[in-house]
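Deliverable D5.2: sample structural annotation.
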Amino acid sequence: MNYSKAHFIGIAGKGMSATALLLKQMGVAISGSDEGFYPPVSDYLLNANIAFAKGYRKENILADADVVIVGKNARLITETNEEVRAAFESGKLIRSFADVLHDMTAGSDTVVVAGSYGKSTCTALLSWCLKSAGKDPSYFIGEVTNGFERYAHRGLGATFVLEGDEYPSSNWDNTSKFLHYNARNVLLTSATHDHVNVFPTHADYLAPFRALLTSLPRDGVLVANCGEPHARALVGEVGRAAVFYSLDGPAHWHAENVTRNPAAEFDLMRGDEFVARLTTPLLGAHNLENAVGVSAMLLEKGLLTPDELRAGLSSFKGVKRRMELLTEASAVPVFEGFGSSYEKAKSAIAAIRLHYPARRLIVVFEPHTFTWRNRQAIAAYDDVFDGAARTLIYHPAAQGADTHSQLTQEEIVARVRRAGFDAEAIVEPDDALRRLGDVLKADDVVLLLTSGELGGLIKSIPKLAERKFPVATMAL
């Protein structure tokens, strides 16, 4: 990879900015552009002294740029974006960030984390455990993670950990991103149907995962979640030797003797053999399952000792927006869960019920992704809010509404009510805040479920809880 200057069109995206940070660390001069820049991405770019232009203009592309990296956003097409059009007409090398990562990972001992859920947490946890043990891995994490200076790093160690996204690589390349990453080892968390706007059927969705598993070299390690039926079936279908993990079922690696107070402690078992007593501060059975899968990969490959693993797991502070506690001084804890799919929403609700069984759960939900907005997904609303005493439903996102059969807010609320749940629509954030304030009690717990911003409620609801039910310290 012989770049000296690279320009990123759409640099404010998580994957694009992470790739820019990696190249910057490798000595490449970076410029970029986007429509809007917001924390935390803007802060990372500024702290790395990466210049960026607001708005798309052909003049943004520096004449001496060796390569132009173009994002996947629907607005980044030659027909409607003059900067993208100028890039393709310039004769310069055009790449997606997945292409750049392909070049960057050549020759590395790559560990690609793939699946319909758990990717960001497992990628971050793998990276954190290696980093805390002084192994200096390279890593590419799809979300901002607590405790990391940045969510992408080019290390001197042999291991390169990457969050493997099955989404198409670019607007001109439908290849799933993770197929570009030179995978030598894979941690497969799940394979349930997701991204219905791109993969209309489950068979369509499984195709790139099948290609990923069959691409692994003979000496590569495949660690797969046999507690998730589609992942287990996929491994069996490709006929690939695998190391299986599960939370508590029959597997090569599993957990026993779990206690929660509120951090989870458990015995990590390899078959009938006790390996270590471990602790994770992450909430929920799904995160305990993630911890077992990460442990299996690190120990099977001999990357860490059990003592190094123990230190890493116990000190990991979690991924932003993944069961993140947003209140520091309130009797009412407010958590954010990444509610981009049915499985993620169910896991987040189950985690709250597991750790706060005596509290009334209020869910504030935004159907932000196509998976939630598409009419074919309406049956998911029949039981997704099991365990919630009350659900406030924000209106669906408008972007891309005309590209699929989109549900209305009224249809979603009606379906949830017909399933027997206490649900109401919220439209204006200020009105939603007032209504929540009227019903909120000191022994409640609030879960914000979205992959968007809930019209600013992600910031205002925790402030409401701290103002209405203040305490000096937060008691979990």
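Annotation notes: The longest strand covers residues 253-260. The mean pLDDT is 92.
The annotation will be released with the project's public dataset once the embargo ends.
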